[in-house]
Specification:
Length: about 160
């Protein structure tokens, strides 16, 4: 076989520094999400869905096999954070948390994950980010400290 064929779909979740509510839905979100989409395209990947809340973002990305998830996230987080800082309209210091979650998604589940990502506001009327995060970790069989599910120093 002379070509490489892949279907690498990742549901990626990352939060603002200290999970502060820094992504204003009326202003910053409207320009930040398209900027993140452009960063994903620049890395020759496809953004299938983006959504979130003022303190976190969800992405569904089709990645190329030669790019690690950690490298993609480094590009997205560093460049989007720098871009937000350069905007004069930003009222306070903006940053992303150090870590992230990346979960593999089967092609057959991609539609469901897209709908889930795009309905974050409705979803978070019923459950907190921490509850959502713990559910994702459990669903994907990832071990974590129940006393500190986000890892790192306790908040």
């Amino acid at each position: 076989m002379s070509h490489t064929f892949t279907q690498l779909l990742y549901h990626i979740v990352f939060g603002t520094q200290y999970r502060e509510e820094l992504i204003d839905p009326e202003e910053l979100r409207q320009v930040l999400y398209p900027f993140i989409a452009a960063l994903v395209r620049e890395e020759k990947c496809s953004l299938l869905a983006i959504g979130g809340m003022p303190d976190h973002v969800h992405l569904l990305v089709r990645a190329r096999p030669s790019l690690s998830v950690s490298d993609l996230l480094r590009v997205i987080k560093a460049n989007s954070s720098r871009w937000v800082h350069e905007r004069s309209a930003t009222p306070r210091r903006f940053g992303w948390q150090e870590g992230y979650g990346a979960f593999s998604v089967s092609g057959s589940a991609a539609g469901d994950v897209c709908r889930y990502i795009q309905s974050q506001e409705e979803h978070h009327r019923r459950r907190s980010f921490e509850e959502e995060w713990v559910t994702l970790l459990k669903r994907h069989g990832i071990e974590f400290d129940p006393a500190n599910p986000f890892g790192g120093p306790p908040r």
